[in-house]
Amino acid sequence: MISVIDLKICNIASVLRALDTLGLENKVVDDPKDIGQPDKLILPGVGNFFEASNRMRSLGWDLLLREKVLEEKVPILGICLGMQLFASYGEEGGQSKGLDFINAKVSYLRSSHENLRVPHVGWNDVSRCDMPIFDSLEGDNCFYFVHSYEMIIQESVQAAYSNYGVDIVAAVQKDNIVGVQFHPEKSQKAGLTLLQNFARRM
Amino acid sequence: MSLAKRIIPCLDVKDGRVVKGVQFVDIRDAGDPVEIARRYDLEGADEITFLDITATSDNRDTMVHVVEQVAGQVFIPLTVGGGIRTVEDIRRMLNAGADKIGINSAAVFNPKFVKEAAEKFGSQCIVVAIDAKKVSAKNEPDKWEIFTHGGRKPTGIDAIDWAIKMVDYGAGEILLTSMDRDGTKIGFDLELTSAISDAVPVPVIASGGVGKLEHLVAGIKQGKADAVLAASIFHFGEFTVGEAKQHMADAGIEVRL
Question: Which domains does chain A have, with CATH numbers?
Answer without folding.
Answer: 2-201 (3.40.50.880)
